[in-house]
């Protein structure tokens, strides 16, 4: 009841990069099956019965294994980011197991309520296959809609097949999550009832064949391709130097500014169009409202970089909030600033999704009060508007900062919320807080799904790595590896694009597949009964 779910959690974690970039594609399918086998699923002729308390405990064992292997970097981050000492950081890392998979907690509660209400599911779900389809779809819905700290989903390891993921722009990762959950449940039903779910195998084969039949391509109409020559700057600035420069230490500040100057203005083979600096690159607090009115207020570092290279610049930094709630609560924005070729600040983007327990607290109206006692957090203000940047060549792009790129629904809302479709996305990131762990690779791995789902190149520039361009076919450009100081000059090829079906409709397309499967199977069984 408890050991196998714990092993299942470990296996689930192997589906994502843990040592470098490598991962075990079937791990989540087997891992979820080991956990679900401890749950009473009411299969026909299945006598397994367990109470909610025991099922929640088995889920905790699953999430503990998942957290210990998949998020082993959390204690390091709590120590580095929040100054939480050992062994309290380790204990809090274990406690994250309680919130790491809230969608599965909701599943157990819903499933228990259905049983308590004595709802006659047999009227709708007349076979193990029928039940597998319904439960797989419910798990996919909960995974898609439940707010999560780290949304590493069942379908994401299918990136293993890239570029053979032709269905991803239509159905997104939820299709692959549904397929994975269904396979997990078919394993459970086989263990329980000794019958094979042939429809699950047939559906999986159909999904695989369809993806291979229509592989992803980078572009289809060469006439509509826009090319920009870009530079990614990765300064590899450690946290102590970064914080010291932000606190005003002149030696640290000079060192940081010199790093950005040297890397940005180094000679290039071709004239640069765009230069990208990472999240919170500029260490001093700025005021975008004043800078937009007076070009002379642009910091000398940015102004000199644009003047010397004749390239436009997008950089992360801190922007003063328009209102002050207190001396330390939500007085700044985590911001992307765009400096145009004519040395003007044309546009900004204020980060909207803040990292819980790092940039804010997840307790809504209680945050201001709690900030008086929990002080090792930045408490940024949250942005309210989506931004669309326009270069001198007319290329359009949008920016997502760090954590935001992990959420497909947020990025879809972003892309649907701007006036015109951007040609590419920029992801400004600082992963230095996570040290020499798998987190930078996990972050990049999950970000690739946004490029695939929305068929849009993503420029990732990070403080300590990994910096590269993520391609719409699931591939990647040359990269700067973690903890390498350097610059990367690349051709950014971005086709004129329209929103993908998944961007416009979200999970609605998967609803249609579910209804076809569910309704078709029910009609088939009715016809079979009448024939008998």
Tag the structure with descriptive keywords:
single chain, 532 residues, alpha/beta, seven-stranded mixed β-sheet, five-stranded mixed β-sheet, 43% helix, globular
Overview of the molecule:
There is one protein chain. The protein has 532 residues and is α/β, with parallel strands linked by helices. It has 19 helices and twelve strands. The strands form two sheets. Strands 1, 2, 3, 4, 5, 6 and 12 form a seven-stranded mixed β-sheet that branches. It has a five-stranded mixed β-sheet with strand order 7-8-9-10-11. A hairpin with a 5-residue loop joins strand 5 (332-339) and strand 6. Helix 1 (3-13) runs antiparallel to helix 2, helix 9 (173-193) packs antiparallel against helix 10 and helix 11 crosses helix 12. The longest helix is centred in the last third of the chain and has 24 residues, at 508-531. The protein is globular, with a radius of gyration of 25 Å.
